[in-house]
Each structure stands twice: as structure tokens, then as C-alpha cells.
């Protein structure tokens, strides 16, 4: 088994997830990027691109919105590399609609992927962490889980739910050397935001006191800070990385 601490990043091949994977690899971790099984070809291309950049990052297929699928993914990683020491729950989707127009599936799919996934994956790694007396769990929430956002009752509810999940679990495992924290990004410069109409993007930036979008690397930096071996006394906390968009 690998002597390095093993880090799993769900949604690891996405914009923010990629930066987190690279940051953790540079931190000296053995990193596994989780991906949605139908996206195998894209995930393999992503892995090849990271290898060309000098990063030896593993990939693992798993539908994190499904309990059994998450269990199978963790078992696969365990058989290849060993138990998970660091978990970053980063998988997420949006299905934006005002509540008056939102269909049940738009609600359910976001809650399953963005909130249920945290339970589905964490449930299968937390026992091993407590037995080893070491673990770092970071849940990626959102500024919109703190302040709300028009057209995102589903997304805002799911991301707000991660805060409660984080604080309750942090209490349960604090005495076992496992920390559980949340990072709440604001708007981040990714392929998704770059594809927005210029006027929409300008309106968003105008709301940010710093005056720009975050880079994915800035989010990754906060995650890596929380996963440091020496960062053993900070738990149940939320790091808001939003450029001053929402201060609490």
C-alpha cells in the first residue's frame, strides 16, 4: 500500500476539483479524482493531461449520488491504494429555476448530488479514519448556501445543508483525530463561468468587493490549508472564500 496519505476528491475532474487535486498532489498526497462513470473517456483524458503536467493522479469512477455506488468506489480505491485519509466532497451540479417553475427532479437531482453525496461517500471512509486516529474531511459548499440566491432554492438548500452536516460530524469525530470543515467559494473563474454572457459576468463581478472572480487555485489553497497534518485543532469551521461578497 502507498505510504503517502491518500486523498479522494469527488468531482475531481471539474474546474475547482482539478485545482484541488493538483494542490493536494503538491502537498505530497496520493490523490484520487472521483468522476461520474458515464464520463470515463473525459476522465481518462483529464488524467493523461495531468500526467503530462507532471502529476501522477489516480481516477476512480463512482456515482456519489448513490449509496451503493459510493461504497463500490471506496472499495475500489481501497483495493488499489488503501484507506482514504483525506476526503474532499466537491461533486456538485446546478439545475436553476425559480421555485414556482422548479420540477421535483430538478430539486431532487441537486439535493442528491450536492448534499446526499456527502453522506454517501463520508459514511464509507469515516470509520477507517477514526480507527487510524487521523482524517481530514472538507466539504465544498458555496456563498449561496450562506446568503441564498435567486433561482437556486435547490442549490442553496443543499449547500446550506453541508454546513449542518459538517458541524454535527465534527462533534462526533473530534476526539478521534478527524477534522471536518467547510469551504464556501464565491464565484470562481471556470469554464462554466467563462461561458456566461459578458453582461451577466460583469453584473456578478460588480457585486464582489475584490472586483474579480476567484481562481480555482485560490479555493484549492484553502482546502489544502484545512488538510494539513498540522491543522489538527480547527474543526466544524467554515472558510468563506468569496472576495468579500458575503461577510459573516
Question: Distance between termini?
Answer: 43 Å
List the domain count as a whole number. 1
Low-pLDDT runs: none
> How would you characterize the largest beta sheet?
7 strands, parallel
Q: How many individual β-strands?
A: 7
User: So what's the CATH class?
Assistant: Alpha Beta
Assign the CATH architecture: 3-Layer(aba) Sandwich
How are the strands of the biggest sheet laid out side by side?
3-2-1-4-5-6-7
What do we call the CATH homologous superfamily?
NAD(P)-binding Rossmann-like Domain
Structural class of the helix and strand makeup? Answer: alpha/beta
| DSSP strand content | 5-15%
Throw out a few tags for this protein.
single chain, alpha/beta, Rossmann fold
Overview of this protein structure:
By secondary structure, the chain is of the alpha/beta class. It has one domain: 3-Layer(aba) Sandwich (Rossmann fold), CATH 3.40.50. A 7-stranded parallel β-sheet has the order 3-2-1-4-5-6-7, with helices on both faces. α1 crosses α10, α3 runs parallel beside α4 and α4 packs parallel to α7. The model has no long low-confidence stretch (mean pLDDT 96).
TL;DR of this structure?
Helices cover 46% and strands 15% of the residues. By secondary structure, the protein is α/β, with parallel strands linked by helices. It is globular and about 50 Å long.
Amino acid at each position: 500500500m502507498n505510504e503517502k496519505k491518500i486523498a479522494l476528491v469527488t468531482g475531481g475532474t471539474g474546474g475547482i476539483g482539478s485545482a484541488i487535486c493538483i494542490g493536494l498532489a503538491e502537498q505530497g498526497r496520493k490523490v484520487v479524482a472521483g468522476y461520474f462513470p458515464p464520463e470515463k473517456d473525459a476522465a481518462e483524458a483529464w488524467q493523461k493531461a495531468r500526467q503530462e503536467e507532471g502529476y501522477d493522479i489516480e481516477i476512480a469512477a463512482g456515482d456519489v449520488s448513490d449509496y451503493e455506488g459510493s461504497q463500490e468506489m471506496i472499495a475500489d480505491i481501497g483495493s488499489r491504494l488503501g484507506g482514504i485519509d483525506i476526503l474532499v466532497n466537491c461533486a456538485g451540479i446546478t439545475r436553476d429555476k425559480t421555485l414556482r417553475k422548479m420540477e421535483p427532479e430538478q430539486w431532487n437531482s441537486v439535493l442528491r448530488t450536492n448534499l446526499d453525496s456527502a453522506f454517501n461517500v463520508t459514511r464509507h471512509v469515516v470509520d477507517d479514519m477514526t480507527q487510524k486516529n487521523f482524517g481530514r474531511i472538507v466539504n465544498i459548499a458555496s456563498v449561496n448556501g450562506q446568503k441564498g440566491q435567486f433561482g437556486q432554492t435547490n442549490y442553496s438548500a443543499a449547500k446550506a445543508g453541508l454546513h449542518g452536516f459538517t458541524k454535527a460530524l465534527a462533534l462526533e469525530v473530534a476526539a478521534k483525530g478527524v477534522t471536518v470543515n467547510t469551504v464556501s467559494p464565491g464565484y470562481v473563474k471556470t469554464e462554466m463561468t467563462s461561458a456566461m454572457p459578458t453582461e451577466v459576468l460583469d453584473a456578478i463581478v460588480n457585486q464582489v468587493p475584490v472586483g474579480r472572480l476567484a481562481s480555482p487555485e485560490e479555493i484549492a489553497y484553502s482546502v489544502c490549508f484545512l488538510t494539513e497534518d498540522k491543522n489538527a485543532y480547527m474543526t466544524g469551521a467554515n472558510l468563506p472564500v468569496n472576495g468579500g461578497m458575503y461577510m459573516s
